[in-house]
Amino acid sequence: MSVENAPVVDVDEAAIPVEKKMYYRFESNDKKEFRVSELAIQQSETLNRLVEAMGYTSEDVENKPAIAIENIDGKTLKLVFQWCEHHKGEAIPVDDGSVPKIVEIPEFDAKLMDIDNGLLFKLIWAADYLNIVQLLNVSCKKVANMAQGKTPAQLRRVYLLPSDEEDEAAKRAAQEAQDPRAREVEEEFEERKRQGGNSFF
Amino acid sequence: MPAEILDMIFDNIDFVTIQIVRKVCRHLRNHIDHFPPDSKLVNVTVKRLNQQPNLTQDESISVMYLTKNLQKFDVEYQKNGKNGCRILYGNREKTIENQDFASVIGNDLGLILRNQNSEMTTITIYFPTLSKLRLSENCLETFHGRFIAALTPHMESRRTPIQTKQIEVYGTNQEYGTNQESQIMKILQFFDPSSLESIMILFDKQPGFASPTMKIDRLIGLEQWKQAKSITIHGLNLASNIENFSHLESFAIELKQISGEELVTLKEKIIHRPSLVKRFTINYRHLKDPSPFTSVFVEPGPWEYTAWFNVPNNIENALRIRWHPKQKWFVFECRKRMIAAQGTIFN
């Protein structure tokens, strides 16, 4: 199934599926709404527990407000639910340390994660927050693969991270609050980090 | 990024890349140093490289790493000038000035072993030949001293000692065998005694020369020694009592001297111990008062003598001892009684 064909849809973009399967409605922190099948939700331990605790009927789903996921934006949540729908029904891996964990990235996941680093890190964060084990596995593997064969300088460029010297300089600059130029340096540094959107390290 | 996620990412990164990531920034370095990602090694071999142009065999060392998923990393270190080191890894090459060659190797190996959390299969360390000067084993003028000095702080910084099933130490130094005990002790102390099953100390034997004598008074006090199942020491003549080896499942050693009385005691211990011995091989230089023991060897073979002994409460197996007086060795083995020649007397 391609990313485009995955059945995660924004409510205003597609019709409600005709199958009589149980669906739930979720809302991102930027008020984007998603309908997600019950089976897909099982990939997320957090959401699965949440809907179980709520005990919604099909009518409740329609009549009550969508379940708010306040920490995740619509762009990221769309990717998360696309992934869950594609992998619905699949066994959730259990890592008990008994066998070495070998993670392979399926073609669908590779395409789904063909995104900028900022969004990729948000996806990882969301997979962790929603406890989606296999999505977390593949997204961490993707970041790991990005590091292979690179020098420290190349890695700094990929992740927009400061070197020790730049880090020191920024700290010094922050301390020299009286000096307008020092403030500028600090602001530049912070802006660079913000623009990169992926200074999660 | 939360620490758990960093750990998951690092779990997918090989140990070489981890070392590179460590250099990216302070935050990553702190995380890696405080929560070391497993290097996932199964074998490490530190080996001399021969036939390098313009270098002696002690000036070119290879460190080979094999990981659980069978990735192989081979790093070559060459002495470069008086005080420099050339490092070759894959198609990369790096020259470090004003840093001692042996210390660079010890430091690199230490950084990687510091992060080794899972149990390894084998660590192999080839000791380079010492210089002709009579130097102390601690002396930083030797390759060894500097290698161990650079490796030790990393190993001591670990929360637990490294787990490996086997350690192999190879050497060529014939002249100063007595110094080897300290060097071997230093290496052994890095490893978890409860994991270490086999210790192999193998020194080249030069034809026509007797093996140098090594005292093992301190070595036998190590937990690593006491808990090992198998010990092989080749090319070093041990000044020790055979009693110090009787707890093992198997051993192969060369003793400076052994007496008939000691051999009788060993035989009694073997047949009365709860588990069967696999194979004890004892080469000796001097056999003192052999008669209490050798009188039982009533079946002379063409070159060697054999004697069989009953093992109490064991109808299937017996102890077979072979003795070659000319080549000066004994082999004790628990074997099936059925393999004994017809008419064999079981003592």
UniProtKB/TrEMBL annotation, chain A:
Q: Where is the signal peptide?
A: none
Which portions of the sequence form the region Disordered? Answer: 166-201
Q: Name one Pfam family in it.
A: Skp1
Question: Where's the SKP1 component dimerisation domain?
Answer: 134-178
Q: Where is the SKP1 component POZ domain?
A: 26-88
Q: In which pathway does it act?
A: Protein modification; protein ubiquitination
- Alphabetical keyword list: Ubl conjugation pathway
Where is composition skewed (Basic and acidic residues) in this entry? 169-194
What GO biological process, any one, is recorded here?
Answer: protein ubiquitination
Q: Which family does it belong to?
A: Belongs to the SKP1 family.
| Function text | Probable essential component of SCF (SKP1-CUL1-F-box protein) E3 ubiquitin-protein ligase complexes, which mediate the ubiquitination and subsequent proteasomal degradation of target proteins. Regulates cell proliferation during embryonic and larval development.
Q: What name goes with this protein?
A: Skp1-related protein
UniProtKB/TrEMBL annotation, chain B:
Q: Which InterPro entries match?
A: DUF38/FTH_CAE_spp, F-box_dom, FB224
SMART domains, A to Z = FBOX
Domain F-box span(s) in chain numbering: 1-44
Mind telling me which Pfam families this protein's record contains? Answer: F-box, FTH
| Superkingdom as given in the UniProt entry | Eukaryota
Which GO biological-process labels does this protein carry?
Answer: innate immune response
Classification via PANTHER family: DUF38 DOMAIN-CONTAINING PROTEIN-RELATED, UNCHARACTERIZED C.ELEGANS PROTEIN
Protein name stated in the entry: F-box domain-containing protein
The protein's organism comes out as Caenorhabditis brenneri (Nematode worm)
